[in-house]
Amino acid sequence: MSTTFARTDTSLIGRWWWTVDRWTLAAVIVIAAIGAVLTMAASPSVAERIGYDAFHFVRRQFVFLPAGMVLMVAVSLLSPRGVRRLAVLMCAVSLILMIAVLLVGVQTKGAARWISIAGLSVQPSEFVKPAFAVLAAWMFAEQRVGNDLPGYALASGLFVVVVGLLLLQPDVGMSIVVGAVWAVEFFLAGLPLVLVGAIALMFLGGGVGAYFVFDHVRIRVDRFFDPALGGGYQVTKALDAFSNGGLFGRGPGEGRVKELLPDAHTDFILAVAGEEFGLLLCLLIVGLFAFIVLRGFSKVFKGNDLFSLLAVSGLLVQFGLQAIINIASTTNLMPPKGMTLPFVSYGGSSTIALALTMGMVLALTRESPGAGGPR
């Protein structure tokens, strides 16, 4: 395909092809393809169990994934200024919808995180994450380069607003991800070491506070440290699935965990991968996530644009941390937290929001013509 466009091609697509990180693009597409296969493997049993036809989730995900890939490529065509403008629009709309969720949202498992729009269930908090990462990076960068803008205060104020709305839903896990993005960007922007310690203490205090304030957090933590309390059904079955799958898996369609887990197609889809396709596929998935994150950092740190460095770092922290939380929850390395595995788990809002995230990463890590680093 690389011979399709000559290096002298000055068209929009031609310039994009020779400046975009094609390795990262390919890795994301491979993860999405694996996700499509696993959705076909995991979701029919879940759909039938809750009264839908067997391919209900498959059909929907086969709309979300191609749409997400097209959207990712479209966003990757943007300039840094275009990425900032998109983030402003996304953040404004997401915050309005997050407020609406608190008023008229759909409650599921004790949390109000979704809102119905034109017959579609949308989770606005998925879209506020990449928007926040870009806007906070912009604010931090503006103050760091000496412009007359209180960027640190504005970014911190936006952080408080976003986390406040998330905790009202409540969504502690998403709040942790947004907090990590804010902290990493603040640190890279030149945060004094004294404030690094203060923020670390703030996060520690927030974790302790969440344990005492939110019942579901306390129950999950207690059960994690003391399995004798009961619960942990999905995690136990997921571990059994990994054991049954071994190195090469039982074979496509031969798994049984998808018949037992209500979230086999979303939060615990890695267990289906382990049982039917084995440890090798799970390691491939982990390796692809690690490759995307590490390659993104290596490319953006070669450039000299502070905004791109901060924004890409925040977006990659969000992307990588979401994958880590999902994998660690499934393998019982941390208390369970309902969070999708990027581009692998079923979910419309998650897939589209992650496509926007990776589109922004690709846009901000594109190389300048004739240069070796990001624009």
Q: Which key features would you list for this structure?
A:
single chain; 375 residues; mainly alpha; 69% helix
Description:
It is a single chain. The chain has helices at 12-19, 22-49, 56-76, 80-104, 124-144, 151-168, 172-188, 193-213, 215-225, 233-245, 269-300, 306-330, 348-364; strands at residues 106-108, 111-117, 120-122. It has a domain at 90-340. The chain contains 13 helices and three strands; from the N terminus they run ααααβββααααααααα. Strand 1 and strand 2 form a beta hairpin. The protein is 69% helix and 3% strand. The protein has 375 residues and is mainly alpha-helical. It has a three-stranded antiparallel β-sheet, with helices on one face. It starts with 11 loop residues before the first helix and ends in an 11-residue tail after the last helix.
> Largest sheet at a glance?
3 strands, antiparallel
Q: Average pLDDT, to the nearest integer?
A: 88
Fraction of residues in helix? 55-70%
Element order: H for helix, E for strand: HHHHEEEHHHHHHHHH
What sort of overall outline do the alpha carbons produce when their principal axes are compared? globular
In DSSP terms, counting alpha (H) and pi (I) runs of 4 or more, how many helices?
A: 13
Q: How many β-strand stretches?
A: 3
- Estimate what percentage of residues fall within beta strands: under 5%
Radius of gyration, whole Å: 21 Å
Q: Which runs of at least 5 residues are low in confidence (pLDDT < 50)?
A: none
| Category from helices, strands and their pairing | mainly alpha
First-last Cα distance: 23 Å
Adjacency order of strands in the biggest sheet: 1-2-3
Subcellular location: Membrane
EC number: 2.4.99.28
Family: Belongs to the SEDS family. FtsW subfamily.
Keywords: Cell cycle, Cell division, Cell shape, Glycosyltransferase, Membrane, Peptidoglycan synthesis, Transferase, Transmembrane, Transmembrane helix
